[in-house]
Design a protein that fits this description.
The longest helix has 29 residues. Helix 1 runs antiparallel to helix 7, helix 8 crosses helix 10 and helix 11 packs across helix 12. A hairpin with a 2-residue loop joins strand 2 and strand 3. By secondary structure, this protein is mostly helical.
């Protein structure tokens, strides 16, 4: 009962913070004068939106790693695929407003002497189709990959290496100009989304609020999954996979389901990320990105969901500051942070805070109540 109460309070706290951000940021950006100390400038809104997208990506990793023990070093691939699906829709919206003013072909295809639109670009001029692909492309890839990996009982470091090889192979493929995705330059120079200009402050606010809502819904989905019987089986698989299989559970089915759901969440994060940063290129597939997002989860607190959100925001805020003030020291700072958390806060920032709170409460209950003066004199 005590653990369930803590989880309830944690969920309320997360949703409360997200609701506050969804209300306060638009208010502080749109209603306060630029000279005000509390004013949120226009350039900061997409940066905060990027942090929220990273938090949703970290949440997807924590779902498979923290609760099922699947250490994926390839979730950056699902994030990038969702981003490319959104980028393809945004490129189709440019139309004849591009540099080469071609009505149907993106500028990079005109530059590379493509004569017609490739078949896999069909349908991306429609927003519903593009959003469907944001879910299906990462989901199908994760399902196919997981089908072979989990049925073959590939686990541990071997699975991690295979997922990293997958994202590295995709990065090399997307770097090729003949793949039809813009090569090393990727997709950029977006104009609008659903008819609204991407550079308009109001559009940026809507994208930020949409990212916050997506994060809140993603958190509720993950919380519901891990609190159900399905989640209890995932934890059993994480802690004792052989025993869980011996009890009659189809372990590979549970792994496949959670891995696919996690990939789809990562794809949604990528789709929301692209219109806010204005570009998607093969560097998003880089294995280092997938390793870094695992660090976000470890720093915040693996197996807590809320810790993954906290770790993504804290680490990326630190990255923004370091890359601006001391760019050459960022990787050393990131490595040092990971080592420090591993040695001194193995449960992450959130787990460390919960431990301190628990010790403080126990100390309060254990303190003897003061005796009346008359009784003490006797």
């Amino acid at each position: 009962m005590r653990t369930q109460s803590l989880l309830d309070r944690q969920t309320i706290a997360v949703l409360g913070v997200l609701a506050g951000a969804a209300v306060l940021i638009p208010v502080l950006n749109g209603l306060l004068a630029p000279g005000s100390a509390l004013h949120v400038p226009d350039h900061l809104v997409p940066l905060l939106g990027k942090y929220i997208c990273f938090a949703l990506l970290a949440l997807s990793v924590d779902l498979v790693w923290g609760f099922c023990g699947i250490l994926s070093l390839g979730h950056g691939a699902f994030f990038a695929l969702g981003g490319y699906a959104m980028g393809m829709y945004l490129m189709r919206q440019i139309g004849s407003r591009g540099v080469y003013a071609h009505p149907t072909l993106p500028d990079f295809m005109v530059f590379l002497n493509w004569k017609e639109l490739p078949w896999f670009w069909y349908g991306f001029d429609a927003f519903p189709f593009a959003m469907l692909m944001v879910l299906l492309v990462p989901g199908i890839l994760a399902f196919v990959f997981g089908w072979f990996a989990f049925r073959s009982r590939v686990t541990g470091v071997y699975l991690s290496i295979i997922t990293q090889a997958m994202t590295f192979a995709l990065m090399l493929a997307f770097f090729r100009n003949d793949m039809g995705f813009g090569g090393n330059n990727g997709l950029t120079d977006f104009k609008d989304i659903l008819g609204f200009p991407l550079q308009a402050p109001s559009t940026r606010l809507v994208l930020f609020v949409s990212s916050v809502i997506a994060l809140g819904l993603g958190y509720l989905l993950c919380r519901w999954l891990v609190s159900s019987k399905f989640g209890k089986v995932l934890v059993a698989v994480r802690d004792a996979e052989s025993r869980t299989r011996f009890l009659g559970y189809k372990v590979e089915h549970y792994k496949l389901a959670v891995f696919t759901i996690s990939a789809m969440l990562a794809g949604i994060a990528g789709a929301l990320y692209v219109p806010q940063v204005g570009i998607i290129n093969p560097s998003e597939f880089a294995p280092a990105n997938s390793i870094e997002l695992v660090i976000w989860v470890a720093v915040g607190g693996r197996g807590t969901l809320a810790g993954a959100i906290l770790g993504a925001v804290v680490v990326n805020a630190g990255k923004t500051w370091f890359t601006g003030a001391l760019p050459e020291f960022w990787l050393f700072a990131l490595g040092g942070l990971f080592v420090f958390v591993t040695l001194f806060m193995p449960r992450g920032i959130l787990g460390f805070g919960q431990d301190l709170w628990g010790k403080a409460r126990r100390r309060t209950h254990e303190e003897p109540s003061p005796q009346p003066v008359s009784q003490a004199a006797e």
